[in-house]
Amino acid sequence: MKLKRMTSQEVPIGEEVFHVRPLAAMDSAQVFGDVTSVILPIAGVVAISSGDEEERKSSVELDMFKGFNLDTESLMTALGKIDGRQVTRLMSELLLEHSNVSFLDTDQSPAVWRPMLKADFDELFCMDLLGAFRLCLAVIKQNYSNFFSDMSTLFGGHVKVSKGAQSKTTENSTESA
Predict the structure, then answer these.
(1) First CA to last CA across the chain, in angstroms?
(2) Please, are residues 43 and 67 in contact by the beta-carbon 8 Å criterion?
(3) What is the torsional sign of CA 80, 72, 133, 146?
């Protein structure tokens, strides 16, 4: 059996390159709750269904949210509602607690890849908070992108059945009128 958890993905952030391994299934399930508690409210606030070209020009598209256009103004409003403790807890879970993110420690001779610790994180991302968010996004994409992109297939059959039943109910009510 191939060990998927040992397969790493190279993620360049600024001048550093990180190796990101998938989370173990149970760890992934636990972290998923925290990820969704932060991401889904944002997606709910900023998801727009309009095909308006002007709105598309001012939107952000993330691969993991295919089919959603994320309005940047609404995104900023939604991000402003996130508690700092939630963000640091989520970053810690995604990047530190599961030893799934490694970096090349050049202070060692010879240089070695090793799991990132809090002190390493603080040094590597000092004055580069956006880089830390990018690394978090890489971990989220690696572990959950198929969930978000395939979510419609999870509920799609139910939605189609519900729409069909709703159409028949509407037909019946107009026929009886």
Answers:
(1) 63
(2) no
(3) positive
Q: Is the peptide bond before 22 cis (omega within 30 degrees of 0)?
A: no
* Length of the chain (residues): 177
What is the model's pLDDT at position 87?
Answer: 87
pLDDT, the chain, mean:
77
Region 40-53: what's the mean pLDDT? 53
Phi and psi angles of residue 83, each rounded to the nearest 5 degrees, phi first:
-75, 140
Q: What is the dihedral of CA 116, 1, 28, 93, to 10 degrees?
A: -10
Q: How many CA atoms lie within 13 A of 129 on its CB side?
A: 3
**Secondary structure element (H or E) that encloses residue 19, with its range:** strand 16-20
HEC readout, 116-169: CCHHHHHHHCCCCHHHHHHHHHHHHHHHHHHHHHCHHHHHHHHHHHHHHHHHHH
59-60/47-48 β-pairing = unpaired
Indicate if the alpha-carbon torsion angle 80, 130, 135, 141 is positive or negative: positive
